[in-house]
Amino acid sequence: MPGYESINSKMLQVAIAPGREIYSRRGAMLAYSGRVAFAPSATAGQGIGGTLGRAVAGERTVMMHVTGQGTAMFGHAGLHVQVVELAGDMLVVEADRLLVHDASLQVGTMFMGEQGGIGGVVRGAVSGQGLFTTTLTGHGSCALLSHGGVMEMPITPQRPVHVDPQAYVAHRGQVQNKLTTAVGLRDLIGRGSGEGFQLELSGSGVVYVQASERKI
Fold it and tell me: Are 26 and 67 in contact (CB under 8 A)?
């Protein structure tokens, strides 16, 4: 797998070689050395079915296919970069949070309403987050973007975690999500993020929470 090296909290260097290709967010390349090539990718390794799914889902963040031999540095808008290693499990993350990921990872699209029922739909409509989100599955590395860095919070069957939807970045493991509210739906109209509603994650896994309620 490509070696991911943090230059600092906001810059990442990745080794590129034949058989060790990656996909990166378009416009996120800061510098490179060696014989490295960048080509726009509408599929990001998903195939035609996945491409259609991303289009319907609104997950349209354009990715670049990075190949060749050398190293490349990545960053975006001065945001913090968090490297996540997958070992055969699945990461659920919104497309605009992805900076780079190994080409070896399988990319998919998930409808969040499947896990949260009407709560999943309300989550998207009220919080401004998408109803669909991106999944990465397999063995490999990826890097996530956040405002102010992220904290990894463990989720256990005995201890679900409640997260402000705007502070949510990603989660992994056997996790279910639903929207919970402290007030009635009628009181939520016109509200942004805040204590009126939270995203409840239960099961077994980890949730990545950013130190801000700002979108990317």
Answer: no
CB atoms closer than 10 angstroms to residue 35:
10
With beta carbons less than 8 A apart as the criterion, state whether 41 and 100 touch: no
Sign of CA dihedral 48, 50, 56, 60: negative
> What residues contact 143, with CB distance under 8 A and at least 6 apart?
4, 12, 74, 81, 82, 83, 84, 98, 99, 100, 101
Q: Phi and psi at residue 193, in whole multiples of 5°? A: -70, 165
Q: Of 135, 127, 56, 64, give the one whose Cα is nearest residue 95.
A: 135
Facing residues of 98 across strands? 144
pLDDT per position as a tens digit, 102-156: 999 999 987 654 444 444 444 454 444 555 688 999 999 999 999 999 999 999 9
CA distance 133 to 146: 16
